[in-house]
Amino acid sequence: MFCTNCGAKIKPGTRFCPQCGADLSAMAAADETVTGEAPGGAQDLTQPMPPAHASWEPRQASNEDAGQDEPSSQDELQATSPQAMAGGAVAPREVPQAPARPKAGSLRPDPERGGRKVALIALGVLALCAAAVAGVILGVMPMLNANHKEPSIVRTDDSSSSSGTKKITLGGSDEDDAGSSSSEEHLGFKGVTRASASSTLPTDQYASYGAQNLIDGNVTTCWAEAASGLGIGESATLSGDERQTFSAFSIANGYQKSESLYYKNPRATRLGVSVDGKKVMDVDLPDNEFGSITRFELPEPVDGNSITFTIEAATPGSKYEDTSISEITVS
User: Which parts of the sequence are annotated with region: Disordered (predicted)?
Assistant: First the structure.
């Protein structure tokens, strides 16, 4: 058995030609229509037929064809003409497609040009951001400068007496300085010479507990109030020989004669501070360990004749009920 398409020998039962891949079952059905005994003892048509293109010979290139890059119109017609197949079937040949050529006037993409375009866009965005930041800074800084005020400081004027202080305000206009020069100057601290209290624990066989102990420079002595309970509302007042300026103070809280007495007697935990009867501030005293001294500064220097410390809260002692303060140093 032979393939009617290419003439290759085929084994019985094979469906597709191993040489050209033709469908043998379709060809066999076509052959059945032409097989059998021909009239008058004609030749048997079941014999294999030569391939339809067996008689075709390739066209020999001539000298005229040498150097031609493209096939002639006759070659293109022959290449695309259908080939005869057995049984009258015709198999068209595939025509190779020429590569597509770019249209006239079209531009090829330039990678370098695209990169330059991206870089220019990025530079433009950065320039806009920088301009926006500069505009914000230029708009905000004048407002900040207009609202900015320098803090006031207190310093000692060495050219004057040792007790003289001045409150000097930095910044502001000359008019402000001229208008406030008289009100900002203070008398200076002159010193404390007297102490009094709203109540005092009576002297016993061990010690005296008067308010004068607050300014004697000795932390082993104390002022102890004599009111019932923890002495809330009791006060001690310190004054000098003349009107002066109060700026800060230090307190040795509790009865610091010994550690045992420190914890046996109540300690003040909150004091109200007044100058000439006008309240200036409240201070919270930490219940520190025995021997501690705490310093406070007034919100601003205040001129007056006296400074008063009022007990507003206290922590109980383990044995006694008389709140005690060992020392108060005013400056």
Answer: 31-113, 152-186
From 24-33, 159-168, 229-238, 284-293, the region with the lowest mean pLDDT = 159-168
Domains in the chain, ordered, with CATH?
A: 1-33 (no CATH), 152-184 (no CATH), 194-330 (2.60.120.260)
Segments of the chain assigned E as strands: 83-84, 90-91, 152-156, 165-169, 194-197, 223-224, 235-253, 267-275, 278-284, 294-315, 324-330
Handedness of CA 163, 169, 174, 175 (dihedral sign): negative
pLDDT higher than 70, residue 169: no
Model pLDDT, residue 132: 86
What values do phi and psi take at 172, rounded to 5? 90, 170
Cα–Cα–Cα angle for 76, 78, 83, nearest 5°? 135
DSSP-H helix ranges across the chain: 24-32, 73-80, 111-147, 174-184, 259-264
Whole-model pTM?
Answer: 0.47
Question: Quick one: which of 226, 229, 230 has its CA closest to 198?
Answer: 226
For the chain, how big is the Rg over CA atoms in Å?
59
Distance of alpha carbon 100 from alpha carbon 111, whole angstroms: 22
Helices (H) and strands (E) in the chain, counts: 5, 11
